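COMPLEX REQUEST
Ligand: adenosine-5'-monophosphate-propyl ester
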Amino acid sequence: MSTEEIDDVRKASAEGFASADQIFHPSTDFVQKARVQGLDGYRALYERSIQDLDGFWGDEASQLHWFERWSAVLDESRKPFFRWFVDGKTNIAYNCLDAQIAKGLGDKTAIVYEAEPTEAGSASEIRKITYRELLSEVCRFANVLKGLGLKKGDTVAIYMPMVPELAIAVLACARIGVIHSVVFGGFSAEAIRDRVNDASSKAVITMDGGYRRGKFLALKQTVDEAVAECPSCAHVLVLERHSGKPDPSCQMKPGRDVWYHEAASGVSSECPAEALESNEMLFLLYTSGSTGKPKGIMHSVGGYMVHAYTTNKYSFDLRGDDLFWCTADVGWVTGHTYVVYGPLLNGASVLMYEGAPDAPDFGRFWKIIQDHKVTIFYTAPTAIRAFMKWGDDWLKKHDLSSLRLLGSVGEPINPEAWLWFHKNVGAERCPIVDTWWQTETGGHMITPIPGCTPTKPGSATLPFFGIDAAVLDEHGNETDHGILAIRKPWPGITQGIFGDPQRYIDTYWNRWGGQYYFPGDGAIRDKDGYLWITGRVDDVVNVSGHRIGTAELEAVFIEHEAVAESAVVGVKHELKGQGLMAFVILKSAFAGKVDETDLAKKLNAMVDAKIGKFARPERIVFVPDLPKTRSGKIMRRLLRDISEGRELGNVTTLADPSVVEAIRTKFQSAKA
Ligand code: PRX
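STATUS: Structure written out below.
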């Protein structure tokens, strides 16, 4: 493209913006190479995708390998249980590996891995795994799984640190049609147990341990505690973090536990990929909802694959020479779609880092970017706010010039953090894609397309191709400030909640008479049609990008003999985006008779044990009562007002308006 043509595209993208917000236009470099030309190009392709969903997604699917082609792109007859690429036979691991090798990428680096420890002579490790090597490892792993008697349709839980073997385990399951249920390494034994039991997982894959912030965490011990109460789990397959040097505390239970290296010795590194019908289940991933019981979100083989492939390609403008680093853990959906599946489906090189951003110091991420020449860096607003707090000097010590694109995900990004990211990490050169999506959506739903979409700090901008988004009020009327809703199905949409189809309908499809998917987020649409996600509108709190149901914590507290009732709310938090504030009423036999500091410690320890440390509330305040309406509903809004030091909203519907003052007094005195 000539310089004039590029300028024309950039100018056209800049025109027609009504709002006075700060707008960042596509950089020349991106416009020059973009797959879609400018905002007009985006709008034209978007229109086409919405008018012809089958055509758009069918074209994308055709770029992947299918053992047998589909008979229909979309079957809506069982709405809201949509079926994509009906009768199509494929395998996502085959598409991630064999198909790339067939394209000549066998010797290309698939995964660049860096361990957390850095001290000389320690476990410091950098590994580069090519597509061909990855295929061999995945096949060997798949054969080991088969050797344990696992077969298509079985479910297996995976509880591992962020090491390449985690990606290998996931891909091995996918290759033979075993459903993986990855449990984030920060979850407790009880949380693992509940997830294994809910899905009747037949095995757990784990590692003796892994590193986090300089500490070795003995994961296998946590698994031992969990599976003691998991009748379905016949095997625990254990990998070694340090080859030949297992963690001495790791106990192997004969008959149940199997060392991976022993089981894999002499096992073939060839294993055919199962041809799976597109709508068979690829994985289960548990996420919090507004009840105490986490939901097993199911994803399909074919639809999910097409969504992961297409979004990774367009939203990150992935190119052959990119080194893509998504900092999310594979224990969350972002790690599934944008660490493992999306980048490999696009034949990219992906970076995996085992540990924390502040180990051994605050410069670790910048050093990684510099050392490996990362080109695309996708992280979370919580991390960005921590980087801001740690100071710009850590960045200045490193060369970040390899970066060309930045991404944000997991929670609304405040404009201040966006601008800091843009200036200090992106050197005012790299576009930022603020991508809105969820575990249930499988992949990006609202996101800028770099090179096309002018961006505004804090806005996820416009819907991805094929995503029909609306902002509605409670009654289903379009509005500028309301609730986000999605009208048409998309390929990555969840297949529902494992074992509870009705809960899926009730949670996501009952709000507007079954016509729209309800994601649980508020949204504003500005004069330019840009979407600004305002946060959850249900009882789910997004703490550092981790979804936690307030009911989950309340269910933990009520198990303590002294607790009569509790209410947990999400409140603004400078670093975490949102924090949890717990208000607890004690039974009369205990009120005034227990040491509150001590009891708070015990309740926190219960949260650690039942969910995981990351779910601990900021504070636990013991109160005489909770603000309730006459019908007994807790008015959480008032608890949020008290926690954030605001004037109280309307209290006339309270059964006893004096309660709020008593809570406020207790809240403030406990604070002092
Ligand atoms: O509230 C939204 C928020 O994270 C929720 C989804 O959480 P989870 O299923 O754990 O997936 C996180 C990674 C996709 C959403 O309902 N969220 C995610 N991305 C954004 C966001 N909120 C605002 N802006 C985003 N970019």
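REMARKS: The domain at 539-671 is CATH 3.30.300.30 (GMP Synthetase; Chain A, domain 3). The mean pLDDT is 94.
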